[in-house]
Amino acid sequence: MAKKKKEKITYVDDGRTIADMSNVSGSPLRKRHPATPPTNYKEAWKTYWDAVKMMFGPMLVVICGIFIVYMVLTFIFMLL
After folding, report:
1. Tens digits of per-residue pLDDT, 24-37?
2. Are 22 and 14 in contact (CB under 8 A)?
3. What residues have CB less than 8 Å from 38, skipping those under 6 apart?
4. 38 and 47 in contact (C-beta within 8 Å)?
5. End-to-end alpha carbon distance in the chain
6. Largest CB tally within 10 Å, which of 15, 19, 29, 68?
7. HEC string of 16-79?
8. Is the alpha carbon torsion for 56, 58, 63, 67 positive or negative?
9. pLDDT of amino acid 9
10. What are the angstrom distances between the C-alpha of 65 and each of 52, 53, 58?
């Protein structure tokens, strides 16, 4: 049994940077369904209200967290 020699990989520097994105195409999802801006006030308002409803729960959690931290610190400083 003869051992196979491992193929040596040679890298060639073509002068491009790692962040060169010139040959990258857009996502397939965008090509199939292009985003269209709302055409009238009613659609724009519906989009806005959907975004507000989506963020309402997390906003309440953050406000409650800030309030709890405030109350704990107030209680601690009242004891001092």
Report:
1. 555 555 554 556 66
2. no
3. 44, 46, 47
4. yes
5. 83
6. 68
7. CCCCCCCCCCCCHHHHHCCCCCCCCHHHHHHHHHHHHHHHHHHHHHHHHHHHHHHHHHHHHHHH
8. positive
9. 81
10. 20, 19, 11
Per-residue CA distances from 20 to 11, 26, 33 (Å) = 17, 14, 26
Residue 62, both tokens? 């953050």
Tokens linked to 56: 């309402």
Cα 47 from Cα 72, distance rounded (Å) = 38
Judge residue 48's burial from the number of C-beta atoms within 10 Å of its C-beta, 0-12 exposed, 13-18 middle, 19 or more buried. exposed
Which residue type, as a one-letter code, is found at position 59? Answer: M
